[in-house]
Amino acid sequence: MKDGQINMFPDIEFQGFWTSLDLPAETIIHLYKQHGTCEQFHSELKSDMDVERFPSGTFATNALVLALGSLTYNLLRSIGQDVLSGNDLPESKSVFRQRLKTVIQHMICLHHTWFSMHVNNVFPYFAATPGKPFLSVYSIGMPPHKKTTCPLLLQPVLSISEPIETL
């Protein structure tokens, strides 16, 4: 019965397997049922390593790209497994997220500071105070004693009049 109506003919499911393997039928069926796992890894490889579309029209170049992508994927996967099995993991996910946020924030703010310095050096009229090229483009008009902020995360980065130290 389907959707409240009696079927005129019964539903019959049939699965056929053609193979050249010399294995018992149960083993072949078991192997076939695991093909989804293989397809999942193949899908991850293609999406994570960005090889959905190959860059070249030549087979040799595409084979090299796929081989390098596979190597990279396997290395990253083994590194991930090693990290997950380590004893020095953070206590909780929130601690890890906080550390990750801090690192990314630091990188964004350093890039913002470099961009501000570069713009101020190329366009000196952005600097409100002569001789202080470290004034942020986003903080024009602020008194020099105030702190400038990273525009993306709104966290204090440096004082306007302080030179940036190299790492």
UniProtKB/TrEMBL annotation:
The name this protein goes by in its record: Transposase DDE domain group 1
Organism (species): Salibacterium halotolerans
Domain of life: Bacteria
Molecular-function GO term, any one: DNA binding
Domain Transposase IS4-like, chain residue ranges per copy: 20-75
Pfam family, one: DDE_Tnp_1
Any one of the GO BP annotations: DNA transposition
